[in-house]
């Protein structure tokens, strides 16, 4: 630990932008609007802004924690060991690994569910899920640089579809739906903020990929830019969905972004949403691979487990879990459990580590 | 190194998956029946469903097949119709749904709900109401050799006629949205021919009132740019016994709404700017000077204002809100309450101001 990672595996600072963006934006982008509008209605944009700002603060804390480590190039595995001792540190590391794998599984399962419902309601999902698992294995075993490459492509593929969206549906937008402003109580906005925070989970992989970034001081701005673009993407899709659907309609729509796309018609392609869902595979692949790679890497650092072995075990676990978490209701329950744990992780664990780092610095400088 | 092995292994895993997944769920277009238009009627408290299936047996020639079934509910339409067809019926390309008058009066909510949950139903689906039986109107389209005859009729009338724009998405928008009601195109048959004869206004999901195709222009003008809409306006002739008529064709228009008061007697003002051309004018009207034109403009404005007022009071008396007044008040008032507004709706005051501009009157003098 603490050793310099060879240039063969590192990426330049700008790539951190794609990593952070991709780790935040996942399948939830298809459905988050309904969840936050349910509580805060016309004011739900406020909750995105609040969560966005809080994540900027957390990213700032993460950089503070990581750059303060004495042997440079530390990651959360070594930090946990040195801050909490062998026993607690190792259990924390195991918890983080489980958390990362669970996050990857939730993305994997939710994507398959969307595909099943929208495109192939009758199809047996096993061939598709095995195909996806094969792709994941291939990407993760390719190492960090491969994953960053996939992140880059997934960023552009999504941008390509979602940025022209507002222009194409202009006729159907009702700006009146955004008003009145500030019509909801602080409690309602807090509920919606809580729901929105789920959709930002993932950026904490920063704690693990940090040593793989060259010139870390320069990478800060890219990480923040990644968070900012994710926030802008969420805001844009929220505003479009709110103006496109009436509120009652939005609350009955499980995947507002996909419904929106289904209005568009281009020559030869009557159902554009099928195509976008297929391209979405790249996005999901990047997402899952990033989490699994982080999990394998943490295992390697804490127990010297070979990544290939742990990866196969994890993928086998995916197959096994797919038996147990089969329907929409179970997926929702699994997602909720995962998300709530994630919230504790980012809003409690990271600040605690930050405070310890800060105290340590004080003690040393005294 | 190991990477070659990884790639080989990945290919070994991926290839069979591709083969397996490409073979399941295959639907080839000339081996299925595409249900493109559908109709629902009430028949002795049972639902009669009708579909039109288009078959492209020869190039550029479509034969339309009609299938009917009667059932306890609208939900088992497809399985029941399948027992009458030799190919699998697919409804992913359904573009038109017509409701019979009894069905529309009883409420089309169940259909709207079930369609909105179905990912196969496109947002661009068109819907309509028939004066009597939907199946009768659908049957009348068979000789046109176009299984989407009604949909095309609706879309062309939205582009170049009086019909305001709508589709399945906007219908759901108004149906589920607070403070709005939707409307559907209304069809009648006239000596075996189908005619678009206005719009049917709905309260919640029930058909309660009808507006003729002439007055539909007012609705178009109030909801969107009324480009291409036309409106016949009676003028008091010189001998004042007989009316002369002017045909006004809208070039562009814009309606803006303002809330004046939102307490127990709500009030709004609507101001409409419209540019129109008047091509055919009777001999009694002379348009020689600017003054003549503005006299005509005033007369047209007055008629439009009167008709708009009539339309709004019709909406109030029938308790329908196709223009979304409730939504307007919702966007301007905090803690808006739908029930309160519904109660006050009939007393709502609307002030209408119309600013009409005649821009061209044909190429001859």
Any descriptors?
heterodimer, A: Amino acid/polyamine transporter I, B: GMP Synthetase, Chain A, domain 3, nine-stranded mixed β-sheet, four-stranded mixed β-sheet, 34% helix
Overall description:
- The complex is a heterodimer of chains A (366) and B (365).
- Chain A has helices at 15-24, 32-40, 44-67, 76-118, 126-141, 144-162, 165-168, 186-198, 206-209, 216-244, 247-250, 256-261, 272-303, 307-324, 328-365.
- Chain A is an all-alpha fold and 366 residues long.
- Chain A has one domain: Up-down Bundle (Amino acid/polyamine transporter I), CATH 1.20.1740.
- In chain A, helix 2 (32-40) packs antiparallel against helix 8 (186-198), helix 3 (44-67) crosses helix 15 and helix 13 packs across helix 14 (307-324).
- Chain A is globular.
- The relative contact order of chain A is 0.21.
- With 365 residues, chain B is an alpha/beta fold.
- Chain B is built from eleven helices and 13 strands.
- Chain B is globular and about 85 Å long.
- At the A-B interface, helix 5 and helix 11 of A face helix 1, helix 7 and helix 10 of B.
- Chain A: One of its GO terms (cellular component) is membrane.
- Chain A: Keywords: Germination, Membrane, Transmembrane, Transmembrane helix, Transport.
- Chain A: Pfam families: Spore_permease.
Biggest interface, which chains? A-B, 40 and 40 residues
Low-confidence stretches of chain B: none
CATH top level class name of chain A: Mainly Alpha
- Main pleated sheet of chain A: none
What is the count of structural domains of chain B?
2
Quick check: average pLDDT of chain B? 87
Shape designation of chain B: globular
Oligomerization = heterodimer
Number of helices of chain B: 11
What string gives the helices and strands of chain A in order?
Answer: HHHHHHHHHHHHHHH
Largest sheet of chain B: 9 strands, mixed
What is the CA-based Rg of chain B, rounded? 26 Å
Termini separation of chain B (Å)? 89 Å
Family (chain B): Belongs to the GerABKC lipoprotein family.
Subcellular location (chain B): Membrane
Pfam families (chain B): Spore_GerAC (PF05504), Spore_GerAC_N (PF25198)
InterPro entries (chain B): GerAC_N, Spore_GerAC-like, Spore_GerAC-like_C, Spore_GerAC_C_sf
